[in-house]
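Structural prep section.
Before we set up the soaks we want a predicted structure of the protein with flavin mononucleotide in place, mainly to decide which crystallisation condition to try first. Input record follows.
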Amino acid sequence: MVIECVVRRNESEVELMTDMDLDSAPVVDADLYREVMGHYPTGVAVVTGFDNGEPIGMVVGTFSAVSLDPPMVTFMPAINSRTYMRLAESSAYCINVLAHDQLDLCRRMAVPRDDKFSQVDWSVSAFGAPALAEAVAHIHCTMRSAVPAGDHLIVLCTVHAMEVTRSAPPLLFFQGGYGGFSPRGMTAKGDADLITAIRLADPARRFIGALSEALGCEAAVLVGVNDNELTTAASAYGGDASMQERLGARIPLMPPLGEAYVAGQTTEVVERWLSRAPSQEPEVLARYRSRLRTIAERGVALAMIAPGGEDAYRDLHNAMDEYARNELTPARERAIRSVIQDMSWFFAAGELIDDEVYDVGSVAVPVHNPEGDVSMVVRLTQLPRRVDGRGVKHWIRELKEAASGIENELRGTGGAQQLQDYRAWYTSDY
Ligand SMILES: Cc1cc2nc3c(=O)[nH]c(=O)nc-3n(C[C@H](O)[C@H](O)[C@H](O)COP(=O)(O)O)c2cc1C
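Run finished without errors. Recording the tokens verbatim:
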């Protein structure tokens, strides 16, 4: 069947005309329609309202944005939906965008029964509709029009208010099943990468244990898990240091993070790292390059906490902590990356002066594998504050000694094979 569409314009309106006869026999097989449309994923929302004081709601995969000015949204109930027949009488709707962990709630709301709200956490919104707790977003609206479209209605709603209530990935529906959203580039390989990285860090374990005790700080081993990230493969705590970064926490390889790992690596690795810098201004990139050169020459990367920078350092720590968790939406990822990017001033460290006092955020030294490539980084954090240059130099010496001890272990304990296995694994497709 050929559908002819004629678009007629006059000064203020655009009108779509079609010769399609809605009553004509369908030319597309119903299973084919379902199968093809099933290849298009949707979010999952619950439209709620009140019918004679009773909360009612239905799951829709057809919720969509329509117009920004004036703000309008739509959803498409089946013409024979019992719930919609009741919703049509509701003076206000709340459209609740479900989160990835609200599958039970979704199932409860999708069944044709009357007591859907009996074990559900909800409250009455300021606009007079039931708002579901823990939803990602609430869109408060009223019905503007309902246009029949075959076996469904296109319900157009005017939006009066809307808010994101929880920064969590949404629940998705695809090919008849439910799932979540994993931003590309943010997905780690799961347990396998961690286990391999932890195995690789084994020879370093006793060295970081001794370091953390002797210096009263946290000592950790960071191993590259992919082109984008390092992971904390082992950590030890001495003095007042406590676990702030869980094992397997992922650290994005983006300027200024991961300097000790990247400095001294191939041009390709360095360029990839630089390409993730927020600003691609030549002078900013030149600054990073010069910093990498200094780190490669000195064999250590120092990050200072600037005076009064405690809060900002905490922000950085919190951002990293959130990055390390898996439940990251692309919007949060961007926000976190921007916090990390703003931290570059911490990393501006010049020559250490013996009698000057420093607040050091971290000291990191690369560890080379038997082939001479950087395979991991040993890092000290939660260090004592206000330590003079002599003290900081002592930490660096200790850390370098530990790094060369680990390098010896790697040469002697089959570390080369471990590394090779690990490399083969993480460069393989998945
Ligand atoms: C993921 C998903 C998406 C759905 N989308 C729609 C939809 O867009 N329109 C609709 O009428 N029903 C949709 N449903 C079905 C209704 O939510 C549900 O079956 C219905 O509310 C219960 O029947 P009743 O309305 O007759 O009580 C969907 C169900 C699920 C699980």
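Observations: Residues 44, 58-62, 76-78, 81-84, 110, 112, 173 surround flavin mononucleotide (CB under 6 Å).
Flagged for discussion at group meeting.
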